Amino acid sequence: MIESMLQDLKHGARMLVKNPGFTLVAIASFAIGVGANAAMFSLADGLVLRPLQVPQASDIVAVSAIAPRANEGFGSNRLLSYPDYVDLRDRAQSFEGLIAYAVRVASFATSRDQPAQSRLGLVVSGNFFDVLHLQPALGRFFRPDEDRVPGRDAVIVLAYETWADQFAADPAVIGRQMRLGGLDFTVIGVAPESFSGMHLALPPSYYVPIAMSPPLDGQPAESLQRRAVRGLDVRGRLKAGVSLEQAREETRLIARALEESYPDTNRNYGLLVRTAFDARLEERGPSAPSAFMLMTLALLVLLVACANVAGLLMSRAPARERELALRLAVGGGRMRVTRQLITESVLLAAGGAALGLALGYGAVAVFQTLPLVSDIGVRLTFELDRRAIVFGIVLAALSALLSSLVPAWRATHTTDLAQALRHGRARLPRHSRLWGRNGLVAAQVALSLMLITVTVFLARAFEAELGRPGFRTERILLANFEPSLARYDAARTASFYTQLKEQTRALPGVTSVGMSSVMPLNQDYRDPVIVVPEGFQLPSGTENVIVLSSRIDEGYLGAMSIPLVDGRGIQAGDTADTPRVALVNQAMAARFWPGQNAIGKRVRLVNRAEQPSAEIVGVTADGKYNSIGEGPTAWMYLAQRQDPGSRSTLVIALNGASAAAAPALRRIVQEIDPNMPITSVRTMEDFYFGNATGIVRTLTAVTGAMGLLALVLAVVGLYGLVAYAVARRTREIGIRMAVGAPSSSVLRMVLRHGLVLSASGVAVGVVGSAAAGNLLRAIFPAAGAIDLATYLLVVPLLIAVTLFAAYFPARRAARIDPLLALRQE
Questions:
Q1: Cα(591)–Cα(545) distance, rounded to whole angstroms?
Q2: Which residues of 532-549 are buried (b: 16+ CB within 10 A; e: fewer)?
Q3: Whose CA, among 86, 205, 722, 778, lies 20 to 30 Å from 422?
Q4: What letter does residue 428 receive in the DSSP assignment?
């Protein structure tokens, strides 16, 4: 068996070497399809698919709260309180262990005398690393007693990257003191290099026990025991032999018991056990459907490539009929001959896979340059790793089978072996002449039309969104401040911001100055607020909702050119001594008070001390808050002086180049306090490019590249088919010309064949692209439909290109010498 397979490989290699043109085109087709899919898999892997980098990751599940919708278009409140987590951990028997964690951003300094920086980390339960089956790269992990008394054990585990970058991978770091959130922490260990945290885009710099979260947050120790404060993600490792359904049933019963024991805080709250993948899909929000859409487009490119190779193989089959008939006549057997033909396709696919993975590596290198503005370490990681390589190889193998089975079956079922042995060509029944090849080429044209139409749709949709973000994107300078890094209390923070704004307004060219705790499209921070809207009928079992918010001063809306459509904005007189006020955008007003005037309505702020109520005094225009492709999203603005915080972004609007004001701003900060760090100073253009424009246009370019690749494959396929048809009909064409048919009529006849194929593919592609448009509208609700203008742009271009591919073999047919053609058998 092995010997015969080696013979097939040797013979197949010889046949491919004898036909270099056919071989190169086939390998290139496979390479385009495999490369596109490997690159898109790497992209989706970095956004959604990559599992936790822990042993037996498939055993890890997510345990989430079943709570009301938090905010349409943003997500659901899936978090648990610490007391609920402890009760669940102690009662559940389906899990080997349950862990809890939460993301924290705190000031980080390697020592007392070093400047602090904002760094993202995780507060974790004491059993965090044990349940994940991780071993420290250095030192040890947390002991159980180090997560029991709030604020007692200030110990920290460093991420491997932090240890390497900040401490030069010094083994003597164990036992060393460092600063986190203005507190001294003792380093006890280093996490393994392979572990990059619990979220794909949020690699932590450090891990500290949950018991240390109250002092880090500036809260009293007893705040951790508040059952109504839900801020923890929970993951569990299933015990061996326990199914997901069994774990779901047990947690459902525990949730019911907690609801009966704590009705004031747990009424209508349930527990849900999901796979870690399902949790990741929800976590990634709009990134997930975008990634899967790109993978779908890449698979369509692969289908076009397979159709192209299948067409080439079928067109090549007549030239090999005598060879194949001879192998069958001497007893080779159809299975052996079929295996030989499939082996040749496998060799083509292997060459295509090697070249395609090289192309995929180049595409991933481009993805790695995608801009993402983040000051705390949020990042997207794309790599052509072992999983992507295996994915590409598997696709290549499937492509080889898909593209070769039908041509191999047809080639080995010749109807007249004697005819093939005498003349080198068997006579096939009329119905089987070219319909298979015609169908493949029409399918290629249809898929190309779908891909190009989708590209045009995305490009137009995103360009429209980029042109109306709802805020100013030019001639603005941004600077982030966090006075807590300089150990400022609330009073000193307010004084610093007042001086900073007064002196900045006096700079030449400055038109307005404002501040906000959260900038639109910011990837670092979210500031959700739990509210109870006055006069809004909450769904049954729902006590509140979550909306996104930011704390702004009186100058922010003007500096960002955010229109106020009703009421008034935040004013300097809105202080802690006056009644609380708030602004809402049009989406929030329409969501909670449809057909009513939102001015004068009140919202209760559940997650603020004493749960105060704020009066709506103004309504702003809608904008983009989380991503450039999102639909209408509810947003609320609170007065900065009434809801103070440390971290804030200074927004400076200018009438000239924004970057020119940066040195003057730094001088002002140095004069106020030389120890005050500025975490970043950047122009709004850079910020907007990094979080919206750059990523969107890169992904649109990727989609367009796939559409063009599919079109190139379709053109090659059409050219090959028409050239084959001309060669097959050479004698017929010679007779036509011998009896007086002009060359122009022959040219029209061949072009008509190409036009019919192109038109058939276009008809199918229009139907398919309309269906794709419906799917895209579900993913991008603000994008609208694929309109007539798109088809008027794409369809004529596609027909022109395909006719161009048919023109060259048609011109060659029109120049056939009738005498030479009549001598051909």
A1: 12
A2: bbeeeeeeeeeebbbbbb
A3: 722
A4: P
